[in-house]
Amino acid sequence: MKDKLQRIKEEAFKQIQDSDALEKLNEVRVAFLGKKGELTAVLKSMKDVAPEDKPMVGQLVNDTRQAIEALLEETKSKLEKAALQLKLQNEGIDVTLPAKKEQLGHRHPNTIALEEVERIFIGMGYEVVEGPEIENNYYNFDALNIPDNHPAKDEQDTFYINSDMVLRTATSPVQVREMEKGKLPIRMIAPGRVFRSDEVDATHSPSFHQVEGLVIDKNITFADLKGTLAEFAKELFGPDTKVKFRPHYFPFTEPSAELDVSCYKCGGKGCRFCKGEGWIEILGCGMVHPNVLRMSGIDPDEYSGFAFGMGLERIALLKYEIDDMRLLYENDYRFLKQF
To answer: Which of 115, 204, 253, 272 is most buried (CB neighbours < 10 A)?
Structure first.
């Protein structure tokens, strides 16, 4: 047994010394110390050794293993150093070359616009409230005083999941849900994604984002609405911005209006950006209809309020002078890196 172990040791040493690569060295390790290696086979044959000889043979096996492992580690260290030296010679680094600039991502133009809108209204004491994107007919239409024969309920304008469930067409249902809680007064904005059955073009998309606002309190008047939106416009587009309210119709507000802001490119003189009119439409607004208040459990004789809604993409298009809404969703890095 002693002679056999000596032979294994000598053969292992020879193969280790002849190894000129880490791969070959690993093959030697497996051949002698692996599960099916020569030294492992000797250990398995220990059952055939006389009991009085087992301690001596076991010690010889351990000594042989330790000697082989020591030479393996020593040779591995030498080969690794040689490989590293060769790599450094072949892959020299020119420290005079300019470093590669790290490319950091940033927020999407829609997100930047939304954060700006939220900052302005939070500064006025509003809270941000969110709600479900899938709504039933009551919250999406009925509770907003929208009659059954209204065009918005047509299938060509709304995505129906079934006869009672729709993809919300506005974030107004969030306002209804908040009013139903009965916690007055209310000062809130409701940003979120909405869905309408529109063809994709430069100004329309079947999925886009809205920011709607609602104030409910005692003695709220149209003057409060005008003052709030005038301040919002100045914060968003600049201190010299002027506002104009044009009469309009919405089922859920009465009276209702469209809000225009003076063109911040030409100061209201008329240019290509405002199509020569000097004014740009940005949102719809009005006093909350008494029927909407009643359906939400609020007494219109005691409380009043105003509401407004704007398309977030429209705000981003105007603020950053983008002329095609589709650019916001095409994920073209050349476009997005400008913001």
So the answer is: 253
